[in-house]
Recover the amino acids of this structure.
């Protein structure tokens, strides 16, 4: 079975590990520059304040309801995210991090009841060892696991296993909530009478291929329980952009590993720019094989979390930030099977620039400049022009007025206990 | 090279220098290197994913050897048993205390007569952050 493990209200839950006074209170984490709400506690959700609400609109409500806000602490969230992956790695066979708060796991269990009990066990481990409550959904395919996860999250036990015949469950899922469908595609599907996931699953894949895309045809197959989404593809979702690949052969050389990371970072950065996004930071990881020995050694992950001086989508900036961190991650003598980069703290550039420039005109000028510089850099290689870019973007540096300490990544900022 | 070695049981295949630590249950990547430098993580951190560091302030635990400024190694994967030194949430704040679980109930005691015990009534699971496994007291901060 494939499981999707997802941290509930992840950023807020990370903040709560170190501050028990946040329990039971309406807490939200704000985006880069303390712009808008990006993570909400259940109590905050109960007040019907939607995701993405700008902070300035909530000043009155803050006093009235006693809302608590935190700036995004990506150093902390990245570290907690890596800990969760490490725990999953200990108990599941194959772990694929999908975003900062989601990971797919492969488990060699076919029995639904046994799978459910394993899910409860896994959830308890992550909650006890790391301190994060998770939702877990199991199914035969990733697309179904994603749906199972949505259902699991809403249950008190946090775990849901998709039945062998998922049709009754799928009939309750609106089509726009299916992984890979999205809001743009949903209206077109609805016009064809495809309103829920079951109706999409039943649609002839030849028809979907012809009228839509191979991706949608694959999604329909996945809903039928037939795995059709490649394990290692570039995903883009609301909160992060991930790029990772398994190597064809085990990689042992540091230079090769570093090159692979640079390559994925460049690809993902291009993706960010195409979608008009910037990232606040990234998780970088290497995964290595177990060694049969003697002595036998477990496989595992090694990784690091970093934040960029300013949110960015520039390949040069990103590689410049990542490269110095790589040597410390490298464990000599291991055979590596995979490397990856997960971006987080994504924000659209138009939104960010609106805060800094008074008009849309300035906005587009800024964008044209960035594009021109991208072109020049392509022609003449990366170098001095990026320094100029940094100089220009310095006024963007992040406002984080409600930032908690880097409890897990800085000796000077450890939690103090009496 | 291993092809030419005689068949060995897993036990005597372990590097001799580290065999004690392995028997004591410290699975660590470092145990593979017989000649490698000693790594304090191997000694102090049993389960990295569940281990957090915090800094002690105040004097409530001085008689347990915890002085202000010390770094505490906290393992969340260990069960909090009677007489464990734990980090627990009290009134919305994390604090270091001695856990007592006996016929008188569950309470947190300071290791300093100037402080009163705190009786824990509600669900212990949600109140205990983790078990303190070591104290790092530095004479010289570098």
């Amino acid at each position: 079975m494939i499981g999707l493990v997802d941290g509930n209200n992840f950023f807020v839950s990370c903040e709560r590990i170190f501050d028990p006074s946040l329990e039971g209170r309406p807490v939200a984490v704000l985006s880069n520059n303390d712009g808008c709400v990006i993570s909400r506690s259940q109590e905050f959700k109960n007040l019907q304040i939607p995701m993405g609400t700008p902070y300035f609109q909530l000043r009155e409500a803050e006093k009235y309801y006693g809302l608590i806000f935190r700036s995004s602490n990506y150093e902390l969230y990245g570290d907690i995210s890596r800990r969760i992956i490490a725990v999953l790695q200990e108990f599941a066979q194959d772990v694929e991090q999908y975003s900062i708060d989601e990971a797919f796991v492969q488990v060699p269990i076919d029995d639904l009841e046994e799978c459910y009990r394993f899910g409860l066990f896994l959830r308890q481990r992550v909650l006890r060892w790391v301190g994060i409550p998770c939702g877990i959904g199991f199914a035969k395919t990733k697309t179904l696991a994603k749906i199972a996860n949505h259902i699991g999250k809403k249950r008190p036990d946090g775990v849901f296993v998709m039945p062998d015949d998922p049709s009754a469950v799928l009939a309750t899922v609106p089509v726009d909530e299916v992984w890979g469908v999205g809001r743009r595609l949903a209206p077109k599907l609805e016009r064809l009478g495809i309103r829920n996931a079951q109706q999409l699953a039943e649609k002839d894949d030849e028809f979907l291929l012809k009228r839509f895309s191979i991706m949608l045809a694959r999604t329909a197959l996945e809903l039928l329980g037939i795995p059709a989404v490649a394990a290692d593809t570039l995903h883009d979702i609301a909160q992060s952009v991930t790029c990772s690949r398994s190597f064809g052969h085990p990689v042992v050389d540091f230079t090769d590993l570093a090159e692979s990371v640079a390559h994925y970072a460049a690809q993902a950065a291009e993706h960010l720019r195409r979608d008009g996004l910037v990232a606040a930071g990234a998780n970088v990881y290497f995964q290595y094989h177990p060694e049969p020995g003697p002595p036998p050694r477990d496989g595992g992950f090694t990784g690091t979390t970093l934040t960029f001086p300013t949110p960015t989508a520039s390949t040069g900036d990103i590689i410049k930030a990542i490269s110095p961190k790589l040597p410390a991650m490298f464990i000599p003598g291991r055979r590596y099977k995979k490397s990856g980069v997960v971006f987080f703290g994504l924000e659209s550039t138009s939104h960010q620039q609106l805060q800094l420039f008074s008009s849309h005109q300035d906005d587009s000028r800024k964008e044209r400049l960035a594009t021109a510089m991208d072109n020049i850099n392509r022609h003449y290689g990366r170098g001095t022009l990026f320094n100029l870019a940094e100089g220009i973007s310095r006024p963007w540096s992040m406002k984080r007025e409600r930032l908690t300490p880097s409890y897990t990544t800085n000796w000077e900022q450890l939690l103090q206990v009496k | 090279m291993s092809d030419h070695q005689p068949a060995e049981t897993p036990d005597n295949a372990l590097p001799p220098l580290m065999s004690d630590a392995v028997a004591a249950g410290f699975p660590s990547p470092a145990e593979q290197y017989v000649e490698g430098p000693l790594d304090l993580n191997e000694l102090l951190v049993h389960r990295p994913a569940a281990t957090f560091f915090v800094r002690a302030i105040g004097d409530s635990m001085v008689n347990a050897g915890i002085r202000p400024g010390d770094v505490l190694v906290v393992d969340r994967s260990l069960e909090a048993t009677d007489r464990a030194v734990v980090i627990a949430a009290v009134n919305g704040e994390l604090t270091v205390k001695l856990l007592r679980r006996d016929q008188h109930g569950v309470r947190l005691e300071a290791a300093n007569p100037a402080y009163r015990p705190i009786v824990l009534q509600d669900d212990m699971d949600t109140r205990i952050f983790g078990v303190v496994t070591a104290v790092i007291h530095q004479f010289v901060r570098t």
User: Anything to note?
Assistant: Residues 48-136 of chain B form a domain with the Umud Fragment, subunit A fold (CATH 2.10.109.10). Chain B has a mean pLDDT of 80.
